[in-house]
Amino acid sequence: MDVDQYENFPVASVLLPKALRAPIGIIYQVVRTAADIADEGDWSPAERHARLADFRAGLDAVAARRAAPVHPLLFGKLAGVIAQYKLPLAPFYDLLHACGQDIDTRRYADRSALLDYCRHSASPIGQLMLHLVGAATPENLADADAICTASQLISFWQDVAADWEKDRVYLPLADMRRFNVTEAQIARGVVDDAWTKLMAYEISFVRTTLVRGAPLALRIPGRLGIELCGAIHGGLRILERIEKTGYDVFRERPVLNTFDWCVVAVRTVVMRLSRRVGVEAGSLEGNA
């Protein structure tokens, strides 16, 4: 779980309401610390799991309203945020579960398995944001899950080459077999008809998922709603960039340039003023 690439974490956004910057910053520190245990340093898998177990003990202490045995200052701040905003602890435990997966799991058998990982690693961020603003209704939570899942999948498809260097493949193995794409092809960065069809299929699913959750941005008022509109159109624009390269994510990581950000800004304003998403989800069957 690469928090630095985590589009779901609007820590530094100028649109983020000032009152939310401190609590979100503390939540970010907690997630960053756990992610570093799973991904950084030279620890063995067993040592990483042991450190995550210690970290879980810190969450357990917050739940029990007692001093944490590890990272006492950090968990003390988290306890304050949880008490002030009445945040649930379940999303934090889900994030820890994802960190444990990062240690042991480097391939995903099928889309269901990948989405289960996203449910633990991405969805909790949206859930916590909604609880922070008192908008955690069932409808909003479902849409936030869709947006956060799509955000994470977009980062995976941007980083196919970089993840391969870390011996990670997030493309579902069942999908790779279906489209006759091999790991050897990823290693060589081969962009052929099989690869194009696979990526078109994956991107169609992501676009459908992102658009499904987009109405949330129109229900959230103020600057946070604008932030969400921008995140949605930023994600959609990255998908367009991948498509325009012919799905070649090997030669250069698809990112947004100045012109792209201008497009995102215009689309964000239009979405906010028109109260319409302005994008229709494509048919998955059409790209199968």
From TrEMBL:
Its EC number is 2.5.1.21. This is Squalene synthase HpnC. The keyword Nucleus does not apply. GO terms for molecular function: geranylgeranyl diphosphate synthase activity; squalene synthase [NAD(P)H] activity. Pfam families: SQS_PSY. Gene3D superfamilies: Farnesyl Diphosphate Synthase. PANTHER family: BIFUNCTIONAL LYCOPENE CYCLASE/PHYTOENE SYNTHASE. NCBIfam families: HpnC (TIGR03464). CDD domains: Trans_IPPS_HH (cd00683). It comes from Paraburkholderia madseniana. The lineage of its organism: Bacteria, Pseudomonadati, Pseudomonadota, Betaproteobacteria, Burkholderiales. GO terms for biological process: terpenoid biosynthetic process. Keywords: Transferase. It is an enzyme of class 2 (transferase). InterPro entries: HSQ_synthase_HpnC (IPR017827), Isoprenoid_synthase_dom_sf (IPR008949), Squ/phyt_synthse (IPR002060), Trans_IPPS_HH (IPR033904).
